[in-house]
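[job 0412] stage=fold_complex status=start
inputs:
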Amino acid sequence: MARRIVLSSDRDEPSGSTEDLTIEYAEALNEQQYAAATAGKGPLLIVAGAGTGKTRTLIYRLAYLVETGTRPQQIVLLTFTRRAANDMTARASNLLDGRCEKVRGGTFHAFCLEVLRQHAEALGFPRNFTVLDAADAADVLSVIRTRGEYGDGEERFPQKNTLYSMFSSATNRDETLGETITKRYPQFTSLHAELKALRDAYRRYKKEHGLMDFDDLLERTLELLETDDDVRHQVASRCRHVLVDEYQDTNALQAELVKKFSSVHGNVTVVGDDAQSIYKFRGADFRNIFRFPDEFDDTEVVKLEHNYRSTQPILDLANRVIEQAERSYDKTLFTEKTEGELPALVPAADGDMEARFVAEMVLRLREDGVPLSDVAVLFRSSHNAYDLEVELNQRNIPFVKYGGMKLNEAAHIKDVLAHLKVVENPQDAASWNRALQLIHGIGPKTAQSLIEWTTEAAEDPLTLGDGAPFSDRYAARLKQLFSTLRHVRSDDTSVTEQVEAILDYYQPLFENKYADDHPKRAPDLEHLAGLAANHESRQRFLSSLTLDPIELTALDQETGEDDEPPLVLSTIHSAKGLEFHTVFLIRALDGTIPSRHALREPGGVDEELRLFYVAVTRAEEGLFISYPMTQYRRGQGEYMTTPSRFVEDLPDDVLEPVQLVEEDAVDENAPDAPEGGDTLPSSRNGEAPAPPESTRDDGPPDDPADADGLPF
Ligand SMILES: Nc1ncnc2c1ncn2[C@@H]1O[C@H](COP(=O)(O)OP(=O)(O)OP(=O)(O)O)[C@@H](O)[C@H]1O
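[job 0412] stage=fold_complex status=done
writing structure:
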């Protein structure tokens, strides 16, 4: 063991003095927020309803801890996205001073990565291991499956993405593979032994090739802290205060990690809202928040119920919605904004009419002075917004859509990153595979023999020696590839230069592979080079892209800086934590929200209910919940839909029914002219809606996994 020099921890002991505080905490916060922000040592659970200022409370707590003498480097702030941590530390710095920027903040995965980069060798991994995102991991599984000839029997073997989800689900839920298969994939029960063997092979492969997937980051860190008490002590000593945001969305592994991180000092603050737990499909367990007081002795519990965001009518609806959940902390949101419009329930004849209604209302709001960017249209899954996108484009209403594809999920970006990854970790066979097969003339077989040669036979994996098994057909390009990779590896090239060098090499391959649409894809490549500039090393650049993916649409948005800030279209998952003057929740159908898939899962409906709750609590002043009464499905034609069960039993004085009327259909002299309806200018192809008729289920099939490609 290396020689040790032990540093004294005396000067780390915070003074705890409150004498010279510069911030007026009691003035800026309400009584409960104040109690939470200024709480002393030990475990603290803040149960915070939507819009009750949990973010604000955490920011003040950060400032308070720093102001009362805790060194910022010894505060760990774990959040759901890196952006959330950066925003919070920046706001705390504004309140206090630059010391708050030094707080160690980020996601669980990023924090674990930091720990593993220092200690991976203790687990038999190199420190420069590569992090696989979900798609990379599925590709690796596919390679192993093909090589090992799994699933050659009579029965259908799961696809690579299913395999990854299955293994990941077991890990995140802390279940055995057998339990996961029985509960969630019963159709594969008979393949249990083969699946288990495949999972073992996947684990071995990752270790041999220096690869870790997202789950490994958590699982391996926990393994390290459980098995090596010395490392646990080192890591936990530097966590004098652990603060966890969105605790309701932690999974079993994360809850265990929190215990380990806080195992030396015992100071842990978790903030969460059980009613907003919406990541069950990734293993999140909202019960963690109920268990917290049992897991940590002498927990102080503070509840935040004063909502500062929404009007009382919107909160009344939110309270009524969440009452339907099976289990929740007893908290009732209230506000001082007692006046306001009732939330509206708006049936439309079909998807087209629903889209026209939203577009029309957005323009009316804009005329009334509500900026487009202060209005959001929320939906369960990205495809729910297609009709609306067409409508908005036709009317030239600018919008940005969140919850779609991430930059590093796009094929052309993956191509470029594969080159950077092989330089970083020449054992990364999946990335070699991708990079090699871009070259005309190299197929899977040739790629395989070249990979074996580079990873096993060659002295330097980035140098093509004489014995290399390549043919003249692609020799020139292959040599160019290797010389590019060696250039990228050299010490004196910045990350931007590395990306530029790969782009120069990649350009002709890119134009060839994406012959149909490469001009449309090209700006993403430029953007990638720009992003690289912010990173001091290739390794950090790759990790940050993997752990904190950037939305492709966010890139589009940056190009038109002078334009009016756009309307926000977002999946509900991606709207978490945001607030808007007016919210439209579209496609509120049974089968869409709750999704069909959720109806089959134990606890699935409650999860969807919480999702619905997250959507309605984003609204400050206006809330419209709409749905099409008919939909079209290929092969089936037009059919009647059923509104979401979550709105079905709500009384009119909580959710006001609104009738949409086509302008053409209004005959003001007619004795039965509709009263109080909102008219739409003449329909392009529709008739006035028929009255709703209920037949259960009918939204499009839905998969929670496509609800959002969320960053960890
Ligand atoms: N004590 C307060 N006085 C005035 N405004 C406040 C106070 N606390 C919070 N707010 C305001 O209330 C709004 C909601 O706060 P915040 O975003 O922190 O809530 P949240 O609990 O994180 O919400 P959610 O969980 O629903 O995303 C913000 O606009 C915030 O500025």
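[job 0412] summary: The mean pLDDT is 85.
[job 0412] exit 0
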